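Handout, section B. The chain below has 116 residues.
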Amino acid sequence: MEKNRVSLKIGGVSYTIVSEDDAQYVEELGEFVDNEIRNIQSSNPSLSTMQCAVLVALDQADACKKATASADNLRAQIKDYLEDSARARMEVDVARREIERLNREISNLRERYNNK
């Protein structure tokens, strides 16, 4: 896969990023991180750029960990729903067989009744 070289400016520092991701995507990530650092700096002017970057990293790590936990929870729910669905399909099959058996029995009883 082709590697893209992308120039970014984050927190006043220039970076060249080499990535297989689309250049526009990498630029958007850089803009996001830069905006987050600027937001923290504007509300806490005494913090250094490095301190702001660490706070952004912690915030993103927290968001990532929560998203992973949420995805794991959704996967577990989907698994439960699939198991419930399989169980319901089995119950439907059993019910259909019982309906067919009862219909045969009704048919046999009607035949016997009509032959009397």
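Note. DSSP finds two helices and two strands in the chain. Compare this with the example in section A.
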